[in-house]
Amino acid sequence: MRSLTNFAPSTFEERGAAVAFTTPVLAQTRVRKDSRDQLEVLIPNLSEGRGVYVVPWKGLPLAFPMTTHDRMLQDLIVKGEGCSPEDIRKAVLEAARCGLAGPLAVEAADAALRDDDEQRLLINFQLIVEVLKAVGLESSDILRAGLTSAEGQRLTRTYMIKAAHSLSIEPTELYSRVAELAVYLEPVGIASSPKPARLRRMMRDLAAFRDSMTDWATDNVSEAAPIGGFCAEVAEHTLNHVRNVVGQLDQAVAAFEVLLRQWDAKRVLVRRAATRLSWLLDGWEFIMTAWNEVQGKSRYEQDMTVHELFRVLPLLPKDEGAADQALDADRVLAANRRSVRAYVDWRSGQLDVDLVMRIEAIKAKAA
Amino acid sequence: MEAHALLSLGTKLLDIDDNRFRQVVDLLGHMGDHPEVQQTFSMIRPRLKELRPKRRPTFKRLFCEPFEDLFQALSGDEPAPLNTVERGLVNSLWPLVEAQIGKDRLRTFQAALNGGDGQKEQTLAFWAEAAQAVAEIANGLETGRFTDDLDVRLNPERIRTIQDITHILAIAPAVLDLKAAVGPKPVAKLHKDHLDAIQTIGRTIARGRPEAVKIFILLAAARLSDPSILLGGLWSMDLGQKPSDRAALFLDLSGTVVAQIEERSRAMTGSPAGGTDRMAVANLAVDLMASLEATRSAMEQSRNKEFDQRLKSIRGSVHDMVRAQLLDGAESGILAALGTLSGGGNDRDQMLQAENQARALRKCATIADTLGLRGELKAVTQKTTASLTDTARQALGNGANGGGATGNARAGYTAIRMIELIAGPAEANQIMDEILNTGRR
After folding, report:
1. Chain A 45-74, CB below 8 Å of chain B: which residues?
2. Is residue B81 in some structural domain?
3. pLDDT per residue over B216-228, tens digit each?
4. How many domains does the structure of chain B reveal?
5. N or C: which end of chain A has fewer CB within 10 A?
6. What does the alpha-carbon distance between residue B364 and residue B377 come to, in Å, rounded to a whole number?
7. CA-CA distance, A198 to B88, in Å (whole number)?
8. Chain B residues close to A75, C-beta within 8 Å
9. Which of A97, A103, A104 sits opposite B405 (nearest CB)?
10. Residue B407: predicted pLDDT
11. What are phi and psi of A344, to 5 degrees?
12. Distance, in angstroms, between A155 CA and closest chain B CA?
């Protein structure tokens, strides 16, 4: 079976970030930087054997016929500054908004960007409230005046100056710390937020995925059942790590005064935790959406989907201290070896249009 | 729980989780054969078929087992059997069969339901007895004896179905062998071992019950994704019949296959062009042409000209359907949807419809040659692609790239997407590169 799961990276950076391509053979392949800081892409072995192809990013269109959306996405990733999950997400949303993946993908990307804007506003306000709370000031006046009103902003400035004095730091420095924290915490949000941010929602969805997949695999006689069970196990391990990291972040925000006073040490912790969280959950959105899409469909379709999900399952790197998941995946693979459907029409070498449509449908829900 | 309480759950039964669904099915199974229970089962049948929960064995279920493949398809997407058995008719027929066999006699077959030693023998004996009972009912119906007892109105189709059931029950052991040899439907391709098994079983039937050969072949065809696949293999199959019988059987079956294709083509050509899902039309056209080709090559093998005219007429109606519903107005439909984007609007449904139209055009390319529409399709495709290229050039010509937030850029990229759906990614990428590079220069 062609799979990215028979590749055992040590770090997230070596594993690469998943890219939401719509070309079936490239869907969820991973991009990373090589030793010369050039982008390269990891593609599962095309001959059903072990190992992965490492293709230079620029050579991708020469090696595979790509959809126009993917060409655009490839271009945007090259022009972007990095290849972290957040950088890739930004490029993916931008490419989807062009319309090259269809109107539903445009709507989904617009909705995701609107949600990001809302979260940005919300986290900024919440962090200001935390600052004021940390120094014993009330934020209800600001709320009453309205955060975006002139009066609200004036009050915010006044209170923040008071808070800065109380913390013995310059007001501009306090503002810059809050702004920096907001950048780190925007995708995660804070525990008390009325509207959970994107990564927290994904954490909740991952737990639901694990439960749904476990239920599906239990008492299921299909040959895909052990593979589904393995997917659920990987989700469980990932979830444990995610909970730890979210716990660390929540603790840091709970002790907000300490966070601001020991800024140099704590900011690194917060930044690392937020980055690690985005890496931990990278690639799961596609898997969870694809699994949700196939609920209520036939058992055969569910079996096929489980095989496809296994192919792109984001195993934890060795350095994350989990059991050697690549080795476990190898065992699952050896016990359940079977061919998966080809992604390219073998007679013509043309793209499988139906499969592209399916991936676009997932994109429309996952963006 | 009372029957009416369960029934009040209605379609909710389709949404509850698998385990609870199995429990409800088990509960319904214990409630007996009441009309409300039957109604609930009809409602949840698609899910029953999907989940196949363990059902309480009953004589009625055992009675239906040999001809279950001929039951009406549950959804339009499934291949319909050539000779269907109406579930309502079986529901009405079973009480008569039960009465004909007699409750006491029926009890002697209990081992067929309970399992254990002698189950298979008892099952076969039950089917033999049931075959006899149905044959007697069929004879009685001719003299009007059971007409009042049968709850449904009799018509030639239903009389034919009852005769089919008699024949199938009489050859039930052979049907079991057939099910073992050919997997459950839809089987997409018949391999040599399938054909060999059908031939061997068919020969046995032709020797003992020649009148059941046709229905046996129809049962085999019901397991296929497209019943016309069997026609190709049937001509070279030696069932030990006289050449005239063999030719008659082939003709009979061909007639049934052709009639089904005709019916499918009529159903779609009858629908108005505006409201149809064009992708569904394209899929149907491709399916119909595959069936038509399989039938035509089987006919050529048999040198049978009988159906030439009918096949030509089907081809003609598919040709008309493709032309009227897919080619005519394709360009204007796609461009009109793009026009809404250029104007800053965003009609999602119209856009999705246009995408479907573009995909349908591409799908048609596979059958355009056979339908003699190659030139027309090429002209429509080229004209549409040229118009879309112009739209893309106007919208993106100044080098817009990425971040398609403005309506104009979005219209340009959407035009390129439409080209991709119609002509493929290679051409679309080439056009996009050309436009964007020219703009940048």
Report:
1. 61, 65-69, 71-72
2. yes
3. 988 888 888 777 7
4. 3
5. N
6. 8
7. 52
8. 401-402
9. A97
10. 58
11. -125, 135
12. 35
